[in-house]
Amino acid sequence: MKLQLLIFLSLLIINSNAQSYQKIHSKAIVVDTHNDILTKIIETGVILDQDLTGKAHSDLIRLKKGGMDLQFFSVWSDGNRINPFAYAMRQMDTLDAIVKRNPDKIVKVATVKEIYKAAKQHKIAAMFGIEGGHQIENDLKKLDTLYYRGARYITLTWNNSTNWATSAAYETSGKILSHIGLNDFGKEVVKHMNKLGMMIDVSHVGDQTFWDVINTTTKPIIASHSSVYNITPQRRNLKDDQIKAIAKNGGVIQINFYPLFIDSTAGKKFDDFLNLHMAENDSLMNVGINDWVAGAILFSRYSKDLQYMRPPLSTLIQHIEYVIKLVGVDYVGLGSDFDGIEFTPLGLDDVSKYPLITKALLEKGYSKKDVTKILGGNLLRVLKANETNY
Fold first, then answer.
1. Domain extents for the chain?
2. CB 3.0 to 4.6 Å from 186: which of 35, 88, 182, 314, for a disulfide?
3. What is the pTM of this model?
């Protein structure tokens, strides 16, 4: 009888904890600052308002299931794209069409106030993030257009540099550089973004560009999808002095989920996989398929090979905790990189799995208030601090 009672009480506690984390997740404003599904839609023809399980990390059904309240949709092109501004407009048109077809599920928003309104209406709030400053084509009027169409941050560089800002890839290339950091026009871009109310994103930028931004901006900045260099020394990750500088600036670091950025052992495993399937990857690219789309195709074909490359969810939580221990709970959030990455940590199979992060943080002993900040409250604070025209 005592054993039965013990089992019953244990099950009751487990069920109570499950309800607790789900309830906290549901009540929080959950924000993800980086999702690349728009590029995948254009490159592969998938449709966001259909069930894309097995084809993409994201769709409207699973975003809702995951409790997503504010999704920043990445607008991306690589440095070789001809007329990147026009391609950015095409990606924005794509989301606009999705919103028009699904007014009961998703709505574009411009302000924090509108985000809360959308949440009360049980709709996903949508904003754009521009991944790569080359998309403004050295024209502040085009920057304005991106803002008024719903972009609320620009990642100043992607892996390629612009002629006004240098990327992490460029600054660490070992080549003789014509310039590093922000030039005068780059500083003008930062000041113009401050004036508009557009967050400056330092994910992908080089160290010199980072410090030039810190010394130029008058508003809090973000790293929309970066992780911790001291855990995983990858050029895209943030060093301790950079994390401290973002905190001092009042900004926020949105932790990237990509295994290569959170697990120091994943890089070799990834290289081994690519070497094994190099001929097949080359044949895909030779017919004009984008390199990361080719990678996604390979991982879909050889999905069993993924399992040994996927780190546990605890690896992601380690990066979140590192930032908290270094600078405090007010300066960290989530920037998944879903649909821009080939594989994910175990458990975080797609956008429906965000509640598992809430569960893990609560199990670590973080309070409901702190978890709510991590899930989205910190990013909303920075977004509000950048708002000027509303």
1. 28-265+311-386
2. 182
3. 0.92
**3-state secondary structure string across the chain:** CHHHHHHHHHHHHHHHHHHHHHHHHHHCCEEEEEECHHHHHHHHCCCCCCCCCCCCCCCHHHHHHCCEEEEEEEEECCCCCCCHHHHHHHHHHHHHHHHHHCCCCEEECCCHHHHHHHHHCCCEEEEEEEECHHHHCCCHHHHHHHHHCCEEEEECCCCCCCCCCCEHHHHCCCCCCCCCCCCHHHHHHHHHHHHHCCEEECCCECHHHHHHHHCCCCCCCEECCCCECCCCCCCCCECHHHHHHHHHHCCEEEECCCHHHHCCCHHHHHHHHHHHCHHHHHHHHHCCCCHHHHHHHHHHHCHHHHHHHCCCHHHHHHHHHHHHHHHCHHHEEECCCECCCCCCCCCCCCHHHCHHHHHHHHHCCCCHHHHHHHHHHHHHHHHHHHCCCC
The share of the chain scoring above pLDDT 70, in percent, equals: 94
pLDDT confidence bin for 9, thresholds 50/70/90: very low
If you search the block for the tokens 């001809």, which residue do you land on? 82
Encode pLDDT of 188-199 as tens digits.
999 999 999 999
What's the pLDDT at 3? Answer: 52
Q: What is the mean pLDDT of residues 43-64?
A: 95
CATH number of 28-265+311-386, picked from 3.20.20.140, 3.40.50.2300, 3.40.50.12780, 3.40.50.720: 3.20.20.140
Does residue 390 register a pLDDT over 70? Answer: no
pLDDT at 94: 98
State how far the Cα of 21 lies from the Cα of 159, in Å rounded to an integer.
37
